[in-house]
Amino acid sequence: MFIKYLIYYYSMIVTPWEVSGEIDYDKLIKKFGTERIDKKLLDRIENIAGEVHPFLKRGLFFSHRDLKWIIDEYDKGNKFFLYTGRGPSGDTHLGHLISWILTKWFQDKFGAKLYFQLTDDEKFLVKDNLTLEQTNKFAHENALDVIALGFDPKKTTIIIDTEYSKVLYKEALKVAKKITFSTVKAIFGFTNESNIGKIFFASFQIVPCFLESIKQKKNVPCLIPCGIDQDPYFRLARDVLPKLGYYKPAEIHSKFISGLGGGGKMSASIPSSTIFTTDSPNEVKTKINKTLTGGRETVELQRKLGGETEKCVIYEYLYYLFENDDKLIEERKKNCKSGKILCGECKNYLTEKINKFLKDHQEKRLKAKLIVKEFMPDL
Ligand code: TRP
Fold this sequence. Notes:
- With 379 residues, the chain is of the alpha/beta class.
- The chain is built from 18 helices and 9 strands.
- The chain has helices at residues 2-11, 25-32, 39-49, 54-57, 67-75, 94-110, 120-126, 132-148, 165-176, 181-188, 196-206, 211-216, 231-240, 281-289, 299-305, 313-322, 326-337, 343-368, and strands at residues 13-15, 18-20, 35-36, 61-65, 81-86, 114-118, 156-160, 222-227, 250-254.
- The strands form 2 sheets. A 7-stranded mixed sheet has the order 3-4-9-8-5-6-7, with helices on both faces.
- α8 (132-148) crosses α18, α11 packs across α13 (231-240) and α16 crosses α18.
- The chain is globular, with a radius of gyration of 21 Å.
């Protein structure tokens, strides 16, 4: 029994570069030593923001470090800034937008500044098949998706690592001096065969946690919305920052959204299982039609037994991302479980919702090209 538990416990892999296996989020909280976002915290957020974002309410963001402290400080008038980012290894997909959308919400509701880091250096170092020119090009493409979400240019700085190295390098050195090889080895699993760029890189991802403190010449709390796979970087940041005289950064962590094929998170390296922000309505339709559902083998069986929403990727997308109306999602679940509706109906509904979102996003993405420079000022 114990052995079985151990195998189960360790068969899920969650690192910044790999997410696989059946993810048990309760176990992940224990393993990483983070805290669950509870009702009390959500109530406090609602008190300030006037609402709770559906990603928080439905538990897509489920875990945190020091979120309570961030709100305590906010209440005292000590405002936080936001930090998030993306490793530009390809086009942007729906999975990436999760953290960015919540970050935008925090910016709006809490008037927070944002640093958005695009790590073209990291993706060059960790991906054998990508050149630095390619990761840099993706960084510029991804920046358009960030801007399209409507961030306030006066409050948002997008940092492309290789283009901001003059500022970042100096600070990264100070971080690097506080980290030993044995620490990063333990956190990231590096070996003697790992290239040395990767070993140094962690210090680059830590720098934006205190960029605003440098700018304001005083300690400013930092909140990082991110996928929980990024926690290893920020666990390290929390260890290092006090040694440099800064606050530990706070984090709020999201779950991973499934790929359309089921099993594993949405990943840019499996295009058929992924919805990109640049997909056409027909591409979306084709991908959604092929998606794994919680439906039964035959129509007769489905009418008799009902579908299994807990296994259904379509339902997952509606629940977490595209159907915010509590009544409507409840109704859909009931109708599926009672066999009243079939999978085709849900697939069409989701396709429509996604295409509506993408049409709007793609228009804004085009306009973003005109204002990119405003987001990339000299630091
Ligand atoms: N390492 C992240 C990735 O591979 C990119 C990143 C940099 C990031 N800074 C971040 C992600 C801050 C979340 C928060 O995608």
